[in-house]
Amino acid sequence: MAGIKDLARECGVSVATVSRALNGHPEVSVETRRQVQQAAERLGYRPSQSARALVRGRSDAVGLLWDSGYETAGRKHPFLLSLLVGLKQALSDVGRHLILLNVDVDRQGPRAYLDTARQFQVDGVIVMGVDDHRPALRELFESSLPCVAIDHDIAGPRACCVTSDNRAGAVEAVRHLHDLGHRRIATITGPVDLMPAVQRLRGFQQAVGELGLDLPDEYVQNGDFFMDSGYACGRRLAGLPKSRRPTAVFVAGDEMALGAMHAFADAGLDVPEDIAVVGFDDIEAASLVRPALTTVAQDSLALGTAAVSALLDFVDDRFGDRPAPESPILTPTRLVIRQSCGGGR
Fold first, then answer.
1. What are the protein's GO molecular function terms (predicted)?
2. Total structural domains in the chain?
3. Within a domain: 338
4. Residue 293 DSSP label
5. Contacts for 36 with CB less than 8 Å, ≥ 6 apart
6. Do 246 and 312 reside in the same domain of the chain?
7. Fewest CB atoms within 10 A around its CB: which of 52, 179, 246, 339?
8. Left (φ > 0), alpha (ψ -120 to 50) or beta: where does 342 sit?
9. Tens digits of per-residue pLDDT, 83-132?
């Protein structure tokens, strides 16, 4: 395969002129640019991405930090996989590449994320599913490298957060159950140190308070976003005396909702006749289980598009002249009504 020196010899110009011609430099004449491009096509020349990055001051690549914060027994949460597809599509639409950064924080130390991102010369970093308490994360956000976190409450000179409107989604779910006649409504939360779980719990509490509903302590069960915890919490709710047992439950994640539905079935309770269930996420399994799960849908493509758009705004604003966006940037949710709380499709 031809190199840039071969192109220079073929065209009778310097290597620097070839480089400028290939990168659309205005000082190169139209004729020279055409000559170089034709020679490149004829000789099968493919420019080095790293060399182009040095010349243009950007790599057209975005780094993804996706750690093990949501991992249980070697499994990843299905919504994170859907979100990854959303990110990939949003970046493909603007001609950018996505690089998964493999970082060993324990070995590399508190600058691990920042040093790795700079080593691969990425234009910016998208963060999801990473432990919020790692010092390496703070080092990254407080640097000048553009960063956007999905579902992490972050702050920095060139950093912001993108998340679904979790609170509004939870409020809508509880109000829907109330409209169906339910007055004893419980919840199964996600991990209360994670931003989405906190916001969904606050939305649940807001709706319950606005509707004047009682909220006994046992109506708030703490889960971890995975099915086994949903099952365990569901068993505890099902075990309450019938006079105190909730008639409906808002579950902060679909995997937990599926686990809770299994627990209710094992306890001899019918969904939705004895207890209605609403989840959150709208993972693929939500429409496949029977009865199909009513849930608050997040839009993974909208999240990915918002994250990419915010990141590229930071990248384009190389000197920090523009005001930082208000953080968090919220994407809307919508209630998908199926059979698990009666009626639906």
1. DNA-binding transcription factor activity; transcription cis-regulatory region binding
2. 3
3. no
4. P
5. 7, 11, 13, 17, 18, 21, 22
6. no
7. 179
8. left
9. 888 888 888 888 888 888 888 777 777 888 898 888 888 999 999 888 77
